[in-house]
Amino acid sequence: MSDARSRPQLVGDLNVVHAASLTRICDHGTARRGTTQGVLDIISDGALAIRNGVIVAVGNTTTVMAQYDEPGVATIDATGRTVLPGLVECHSHPIFDGERHDEYAERLGGASLAEVAAKGGGIWRSVVATRAADDQTLFDRLTIAYTRILAGGVTTLEVKSGYGLTVDEELRALRILEASRVSTPMQLAITFLGAHVVPRYLQSVGDLAADADERATAYTDLIDTTMLPAIIAQGLSEFQDVTVEEGLFTPAQALQLMARSHQLGLPVRVHADAWKPSQGWRTAVQGRAISAEHLTYTPDEEIVEVGATDTVAVLLPIAELIYMTDRRANARLFVDQQVPVAIATDYCSSIHATSLLNTLATAAPWFRMTPAEVIVGATLNAAYSLGRQATCGSLDVGKRGDLIVLDCPHPEEICLAPGAPLLDQVVIAGSVAFSQR
Ligand SMILES: [Zn+2]
Q1: What are the phi and psi torsion angles at 157 (to 5°)?
Q2: Total domain count for the chain?
Q3: How far does residue 161's CA lie from ligand 1's centre (Å)?
Q4: Phi, psi at residue 20, to the nearest 5°?
Q5: 109 CA distance to ligand 1 middle (Å)
Q6: In the chain, what is the greatest distance between 2 CA atoms, to the nearest angstrom?
Q7: Cα of 390 from ligand 1 centre, angstroms
Q8: What would the pLDDT profile of 214-227 be if each residue is shown by its tens digit?
Q9: Over residues 292-303, mean pLDDT
C-alpha cells in the first residue's frame, strides 16, 4: 500500500463552450429548500472558463469567450450536451471485505432480516471479514470502488469507516482511507463511524454474554473516552457519524457522542430511522448534526414538529429498495418543511450501487421528487451536507472546476435514462478525470 498522503492534484486550464444546458445550480449562501430545491439555473449555449483549477467565468458562450478565448487552452465543445456541477456523493461505506450477495438472495426468497442475522449475516459479518483482511486487500477494493464511483459522475466523495468497531481497527480503517486519496482524483471527505452498530464483543469473546443494553453503554463510553480522542489527535477524520436506531444506540447515547464531538471540534452526521421510528431525525437536529441520513421511518409528525432546519436530510433510495423497507422516507414533506434534501447511493458491504447518476433516476419516481429536485440533492445540497460548499456543488465563479458533461440536451434526461451511458466526461479542478470516448 502506498504511504503517500495524497495524489498530486492535477490543476488545469479549460474552456467549456456551447453547452445546450449549462446547469449552474447557483449557490446563494445556503442549501436549497422548499421551492428552491428544484431550481437549476440553466444557461443555454452556455460556457465556462477554468484557470488553475478554479472557475473564473460562467455565462453564455459569446460573453465568456470574448474574454477567455486564449490560445493553447484546452476546450470542450459541449454542443447538444448538458454540463452539470461534478456530483457530490455524501454517504458511502467503501472500506470492507467479504461478500453478502447470498443474504440478499435469501431475503428476496422470503427470509427476514432476523433470520439472516441469526445465520451470521448482516453488518457483523462484514466486520469479521474486514478485520481479517490485510491493508492491501482493503486498499485494492477501495481503488476499484473509486474507479466505478467516478464513472458515475462523482467528483467529491464521503467515505465512512465503521466495519472495525475497536480502537485499533477503526484507526486502521481511517489510515487506509487517508492513504487511499492517492488512488483517485476525487476529493474525499473521511468520516469516523464508530457508532455504526454495537459490536458483539467489546474486547474478547468472553463478554458476549453481557446484556445488549450494557454493551451499548460500554461501547458508547469507549468511543467517547478513547476512540474519538485518538482519531482527533491523529487528524484522521472530518466528521463523526453516529447511529440513532432502536436496538442500536439510543437518542441519549447519540447525544452524548455528538456533544463530545462538538466539544472536540468535529462536526457530526447521523444515521437515523433506517429500520424503525427511533427519534433519529429529532435527535440529529437537537444535536446540531450537519446531516441526518436514511430517515426512512421518520414519522410525519416528527418531521412537522421539527420543522425547518439547516440539517440536511440525506435520502437513500437504493438502500430502501434493496432493504425492501415497507416505507419510504417522506421526501416531499421534508422539502415542504423547508429542510434541504440530498440524495446518495449508500454504497456499502450490502449495496454495491456505485452510480450516483443512476441513483438519481431511481430517486425521482421512488420519492416523487422532480428531476430538478434530485439533481440539486446530489450537487449543491450534498456539498452543504459535507460542509464543502465553498469548493463544490455548483458552477459558480471561485469554486473548484469540477463538472460533468452528459450526452443529452437537458439535465432532466438523467431521470428518463437509468443505466444509459450518458456520462461523457468528468472534470476535476479543470482536468479531465474520466472520459467515455
Ligand atoms: Zn450508511
Answers
A1: -130, 125
A2: 2
A3: 10
A4: -60, -40
A5: 24
A6: 73
A7: 25
A8: 889 999 999 999 99
A9: 98
